[in-house]
Amino acid sequence: MKRREFLKGTAAVAGTATIASPAISQTPTELTFYYPVAVGGPITKLVDTLAAEFEKENAGIKVKPVYAGTYQETLVKLITAHKSGGAPALSVVLSTDMFTLIDDDVIVAFDDFVKTDDDKKWLQSFFPAFMENSQTGGKTWGAPFQRSTVVLYWNKELFKETGLDPEKAPASWAEQLAFAEKLTKVDASGTATQWGVQVPSTGFPYWLFQGFSTQAGAILMNQEGNRTFFDKPEVIEALTYWVDLSRKHKVHPPGIVEWGTTPKDFFEKKVAMMWTTTGNLTNVRNNAKFPFGVAMLPAGKRRGSPTGGGNFHISSKAPKEQQEAAFRFARWCTMPERAAQWCVDTGYVAVRKDAFDTPVLKKYVSDFPAAAVARDQLEFAVAELSTHENQRVTKALNDGLQAALTGTKTPVQAMKDSQAEAERILVRYR
Amino acid sequence: MRRLTATIHGWLLLLPAMAFLALFTHWPAIGTLIDSFYSTPRPRRPSAFMGLGNYREIFDDPIFWQALTNNLWFAVGTIPVSIGLAMLMALWVNNHIAGRTLVRMAFFTPTVLPMIAVANIWLFFYTPQYGLLAQFLGLFGSFSQNWLGSKDTALLCVTIVAVWKEAGFFMIFYLAALQQISPSLGEAAALEGASRWYFFRRVQFPLLMPTTLFVLVNAVINAFRTVDHIVVMTRGGPDNATSLLLFRIYELGFGFWDTGLASAMTVILLLGLGLVALAQYTFLEKRVHYR
Amino acid sequence: MTADVRTGIYEPRGLARLIETIAAWLLAILWVLPLAYAVWTAFHPAEFSARFTATAPLTLENFVRAWEAAPFARYFFNTFVLVTLILGCQLVLCTLAAYAFARYEFPGSNVAFALVLAQLMIMPDILIVENYKTMGKLGILDSIPAIALPYVASAFGVFLLRQTFKTVPKELDDAARIEGASALQTLLKVYVPLARPIYLAYGLVSISYHWNNFLWPLIVTSSVESRPLTVGLQVFSSSDQGIDWSVICAATLMTSAPLLVGFLLFQRQFVQSFMRAGIR
After folding, report:
1. N or C: which end of chain C has fewer CB within 10 A?
2. Which residue from A109, C60, C181, C31 is spatially nearest to B82, judged by alpha carbons?
3. B103 lies in a domain?
4. B41 touches chain A (CB under 8 A)
């Protein structure tokens, strides 16, 4: 049965050169699609709607979206499905998992499917910053879908109260510190009732730290994903700045700051400025009962932020016609109008420049200028930390960052240890 | 002949249960042991026998030692406290205080709530500044401590959550046992002029020993298998201060896909539990023969 | 009530009673606080999840949002099927095994019993890595049986039932035999009815444990068709957007409601069954 379908499928595929489906095959190609949900909102419904619309325009393909949990869970499901032979043809996982997926032979490059000029233009239409985590060894392994960057949210009301210009966000490290000092309120007994600035450090502190390190002028890993630079002086400088915010200047909460409660801290006015993902835009818009602003992260030596979020990946073990279907669906979902709509619905950054020229996003941005900040910051954005054995290496960095922030180790020692651990893991990949 | 029929019947009755046990307990235990001697298969390097290599790596890993120490502290924190509280709760509920049904209900509700859900609620309790604990302590003068975000207090906090979750469950066992104690014992003791404390210490407590041993088995097991709240509240942080053995196994086996190390660590955990099991089994057997 | 007579002698009186009552109440309030908070937060809008003002408006919006965020209807169904499957198999397997241990003398029974008891410590929860491989080999990954199978042979159940069966007087057994009952019929007609409190107590323990089990189902399931409630709940714990307590509490109440209501209605029977079960 499989072979018959395969032959039919290849006949169908061989007959096409465009993305419009010819629907030659009798049995529709079934495309299983694993996707994570990492933001609030009726994402499952949105994905189901996308699938239904795609099926209308492509009669020979049946899309089966499978909600797979968090990014971490989706990765686990993908790899286990691959190992036990039931891999979904298309999946969305963190762009940083690219090396892991390549190493385990889980995915195929998009280049095999990019045939026409239209296809090539499509591949080049993504923001370069997002492609950094999607390409290696000259090939493209992922297509950006739901991506984000870190941005600074600030409470305009609190700025005004303190005498700061409510429309001006801090533009440099020095300003960030100065503003935060003004915004930190301490009561009679010396306990802080309001913090100036807060950068979360639970779960994946490395992502936020990449903001600091990029701003200090450092890159944390090489493009091949087999070497890290955690102990470079600029990196230590970045970490020292972050640690000093809480330990020396006392404008930042001490210890580890919980990612999950940071938005709530902001709404409760317990902190005046917070670093978090653009994905929180809709959440903040709905829940902040005060005027707020969104800005690019303050510059150190330069502006900088890591990108984040997930890419489309095509499975290596799926039969050829499913892979083609997967490519088509991925391409379809990232057409300008759809990328724009996805941005508005979920709060992720639209992954291509021309999406911002569509009427949908034009209107959205004019109503809500904050939505353009993430796009503007892409000019300064760098790849998210991604190496072979990514989970292990990021854990090494995470542990070091948490050790420095809790004061258990000095920034120098923490980064030295993290680098040593990362070296130990990556040396065999060189 | 009868003996043969008995043997056959006996084994037939036993077969279904033993089959499942063999497949999902005994075989995996052995399988884990075997796997622990092999390196993790990687795409370009298939699995190879490496003797005690995985164990060496585990013992060299400071995170393993941290997880072990944490787990031991966690056990020391949860086992006596939850058993003690359970006994206390049972004693209280057993007496006819006002509203005892409600109190009993209150003590037991944590058991029916999934840990994954209550962990988020406890996360709120521990949130600095506006969390419930912070608000409460704020009534007595300002105080804001980052409970889950500092290495000194994080483990204690998750221990409290675990105790809260299981004390009520153990209470039920004690309650049932208390109500089994014949009232004549109480009467006899009262006749002899024994104080309430004496009655507890010399009559109730020893009679509760079988329950205590039974509950102890459960508490020990729970100390090593309760990690749901870690997944939600701290993910092992800050800097592995709340990493427990099973959590680390999960991280190694399903986060890093390092099945070799995960198996080795599982074996270590099983050995530890096996020793405890041996001790408990000896105790329990004695108890069974006692009656 | 007989209970009065039992502990009557050493019941605290007067001041001691008052102190004990207050202490018990304080502890009870502390114990029920998380649930109380969940109820408060689920029925009030998001901005009141950290403020406890008495005049806050009530709303059902959180429940609507929670229901829409994930296919809870399916999760309920899966969980229901899962706990029923597990309990059903456990009852059958453990009854048969306990009967064998209690009433049959055969070579190897001691070894077998020791092997069974080993599972008290070598739990499926610890053997996740290897069991996962086994499920892969059996080809049933990501299905409800995959979650259930490691738990169906329960050492705890065998242990409890064996103890109970041992207390059944031999005369009843003999009487049944004389009437021509086979071994299985004796089991069904004599032993099982006498062990009803045990079954009830054990069933309640099993259901509440498996309804709330998280780590193993998380590992072994990947699709909506097999995922139980706890894994479904986790979607709220790990959002990029941070923790929305209103929705989480609404989801928590929704998913725990059956167990909570069940317990509230049947707690007397629950405790009594433990009592009669003579679980020591």
Report:
1. N
2. C31
3. yes
4. no
Work out the angle between the directed axes of helices B115-126 and C14-43 (0-180°, nearest 10).
100
Tell me B193's DSSP state. Answer: T
> Subunits touching C (CB < 8 Å, at least 3 pairs)?
A, B
* CA-based nearest residue in chain A for residue B154: A256
Nearest to B150 among A255, A261, A270 (CB): A255
A262 at the C interface (CB within 8 A)? yes
- List the domain range (segments joined by +) for residue B248: 65-288
In sequence order, the 6+-apart residues with CB closer than 8 A to the CB of B285 are: none
The answer to the question of residue B239 being in a domain is: yes
For residue A113, the number of C-alpha atoms closer than 13 Å in the C-beta half-sphere is 28
List the CATH number of the domain containing B165: 1.10.3720.10
Integer Cα distance of B73 and A313 in angstroms: 43
Q: Round to whole Å and give the CA distance between A281 and A287.
A: 10
For residue C43, give the H/E element and its range: helix C14-43
Q: Could you say which DSSP state residue C46 is in?
A: G
- Minimal Cβ distance to A264: which of C136, C237, C243: C243
What is the rounded CA–CA span in Å between residue B226 and residue B6? Answer: 41
Each residue's pLDDT tens digit in chain A (430 positions)?
444 444 343 444 444 434 444 445 567 888 999 998 877 667 888 898 999 999 999 888 999 888 887 788 788 888 878 877 778 999 999 999 999 899 888 999 999 888 888 888 999 999 999 998 899 888 999 999 999 999 999 999 999 999 999 999 999 999 999 999 999 998 887 788 899 999 999 888 999 999 999 999 999 999 888 999 999 999 999 999 999 999 999 999 999 999 888 999 999 999 999 999 988 888 888 889 999 999 999 999 999 999 999 999 999 999 999 999 999 999 999 999 999 999 888 888 899 988 999 999 999 999 888 888 988 999 999 999 999 989 899 999 999 999 999 999 999 999 999 999 999 999 888 8
Contact yes or no for A261/C243 (Cβ under 8 A): yes
CA C207 to chain centroid, in Å, comes to 3
CA distances to B15, B197, C134 from C146, in Å:
20, 51, 10
Structure tokens at B211: 């329950």
- Partnered with residue A107 across adjacent β-strands are A315
Angstroms from B142 CA to nearest CA on chain A? 6
pTM above 0.90, yes or no: no
Of B103, B227, B281, the CB nearest to C25: B103
- Domain assignment present for B252: yes
Within 8 A of C163 by CB-CB distance, chain B residues are 288
CB contact under 8 A, B108 and C263: yes
Amino acid at position C263, single letter: F
Nearest CA in chain B to C152: B20
Closest CA in chain C for residue B208: C280
**Contact: B255, A399; criterion CB under 8 Å:** no
CA distance B158 to chain C (A): 14
Q: How many CA atoms lie within 13 A of B59 on its CB side?
A: 7
Q: Residue A301, Cβ neighbours under 10 Å: how many? A: 14
A15 burial (CB, 10 Å; 0-12 / 13-18 / 19+) is exposed
Q: Please report which residue ranges of A334-407 form alpha helices under DSSP H.
A: 336-346, 359-367, 370-377, 390-405
Shortest distance, CA A174 to any CA of chain B (angstroms): 26
Residue with tokens 């405790």: C271
- For chain B, how many structural domains are there in total? 1
Give the domains, in start order, of chain A with CATH numbers.
24-147+308-372 (3.40.190.10), 149-306+383-429 (3.40.190.10)
C64: nearest CA in chain A? A42
Residue B11 lies in a domain: no
Write down the ipTM of this complex. 0.84
Helices B151-180 & C245-277 angle (0-180, nearest 10):
30
How many angstroms separate the CA atoms of A345 and A339, rounded?
10
